[in-house]
Specification:
Layout: E1 4-7, E2 10-18, E3 25-30, E4 33-37, H1 46-59, E5 66-70, E6 76-82, H2 86-96
Parallel strand pairs: 2-4
Antiparallel strand pairs: 1-2, 2-6, 3-4, 5-6
Length: 97
Protein backbone atom coordinates (compact mmCIF):
# COMPACT_ATOMS: atom_id res chain seq x y z
CA UNK A 1 0.00 0.00 0.00
CA UNK A 2 1.33 3.40 -1.02
CA UNK A 3 2.05 5.61 2.01
CA UNK A 4 0.83 9.15 1.37
CA UNK A 5 0.76 12.06 3.83
CA UNK A 6 -1.24 15.19 3.24
CA UNK A 7 0.04 18.46 4.70
CA UNK A 8 -1.29 21.94 4.29
CA UNK A 9 -1.21 22.65 0.59
CA UNK A 10 0.76 19.56 -0.39
CA UNK A 11 1.14 15.80 -0.47
CA UNK A 12 4.23 13.81 0.56
CA UNK A 13 4.98 10.28 -0.62
CA UNK A 14 7.89 7.98 -1.47
CA UNK A 15 9.09 7.18 -4.96
CA UNK A 16 11.37 4.29 -5.98
CA UNK A 17 13.25 5.29 -9.15
CA UNK A 18 14.63 2.92 -11.76
CA UNK A 19 16.96 4.90 -14.05
CA UNK A 20 17.89 3.92 -17.63
CA UNK A 21 14.55 2.24 -18.35
CA UNK A 22 13.20 1.80 -21.88
CA UNK A 23 10.54 4.49 -21.31
CA UNK A 24 9.26 6.88 -18.64
CA UNK A 25 6.37 5.24 -16.79
CA UNK A 26 4.76 4.51 -13.44
CA UNK A 27 5.40 0.81 -12.80
CA UNK A 28 3.13 0.24 -9.80
CA UNK A 29 3.97 0.18 -6.11
CA UNK A 30 7.02 -1.25 -4.36
CA UNK A 31 7.52 -1.40 -0.57
CA UNK A 32 5.18 1.52 0.16
CA UNK A 33 6.61 3.69 -2.63
CA UNK A 34 5.42 4.61 -6.12
CA UNK A 35 7.75 2.85 -8.59
CA UNK A 36 8.77 5.09 -11.47
CA UNK A 37 10.90 3.97 -14.42
CA UNK A 38 12.85 6.76 -16.15
CA UNK A 39 14.94 6.81 -19.32
CA UNK A 40 17.40 9.29 -17.79
CA UNK A 41 20.62 7.91 -16.29
CA UNK A 42 21.47 8.47 -12.62
CA UNK A 43 24.34 10.78 -13.61
CA UNK A 44 24.77 14.49 -12.88
CA UNK A 45 21.30 14.79 -11.31
CA UNK A 46 19.60 13.94 -14.63
CA UNK A 47 17.32 11.25 -13.14
CA UNK A 48 16.14 13.66 -10.41
CA UNK A 49 15.36 16.35 -12.98
CA UNK A 50 13.56 13.80 -15.18
CA UNK A 51 11.54 12.59 -12.17
CA UNK A 52 10.40 16.12 -11.29
CA UNK A 53 9.45 16.80 -14.91
CA UNK A 54 7.65 13.45 -15.29
CA UNK A 55 5.59 13.82 -12.07
CA UNK A 56 4.69 17.43 -12.89
CA UNK A 57 3.53 16.37 -16.36
CA UNK A 58 1.48 13.41 -15.01
CA UNK A 59 -0.23 15.50 -12.34
CA UNK A 60 -0.59 18.60 -14.54
CA UNK A 61 1.22 20.85 -12.06
CA UNK A 62 4.16 23.21 -12.60
CA UNK A 63 7.64 21.75 -12.08
CA UNK A 64 8.17 24.29 -9.29
CA UNK A 65 5.44 22.52 -7.25
CA UNK A 66 7.43 19.25 -7.19
CA UNK A 67 10.26 18.98 -4.65
CA UNK A 68 12.58 16.16 -3.60
CA UNK A 69 12.66 16.31 0.21
CA UNK A 70 15.19 13.53 0.75
CA UNK A 71 16.99 10.79 -1.13
CA UNK A 72 18.77 12.99 -3.67
CA UNK A 73 21.40 10.32 -4.27
CA UNK A 74 19.21 7.30 -3.46
CA UNK A 75 16.78 5.29 -5.57
CA UNK A 76 14.11 5.81 -2.90
CA UNK A 77 13.10 9.46 -2.56
CA UNK A 78 10.59 11.45 -0.50
CA UNK A 79 8.64 13.77 -2.79
CA UNK A 80 6.42 16.74 -1.93
CA UNK A 81 3.98 18.07 -4.49
CA UNK A 82 2.03 21.23 -3.68
CA UNK A 83 -1.52 21.60 -4.91
CA UNK A 84 -2.13 17.85 -5.36
CA UNK A 85 -4.44 15.60 -3.33
CA UNK A 86 -3.92 12.08 -2.04
CA UNK A 87 -6.57 10.85 -4.50
CA UNK A 88 -4.62 12.21 -7.46
CA UNK A 89 -1.50 10.29 -6.38
CA UNK A 90 -3.49 7.07 -5.93
CA UNK A 91 -5.06 7.61 -9.35
CA UNK A 92 -1.56 7.30 -10.87
CA UNK A 93 -1.42 3.73 -9.56
CA UNK A 94 -4.95 2.96 -10.76
CA UNK A 95 -4.11 4.12 -14.30
CA UNK A 96 -1.13 1.77 -14.50
CA UNK A 97 -2.94 -1.29 -13.07
Amino acid sequence: MLEIQEREGGTIFSVRVQPRASKDEVAGEMAGALKVRLQAPAVENRANEALIEFLAQLLKTPKSAVRILSGDRSRTKRIEIRGVTQQQIQALLAEEA
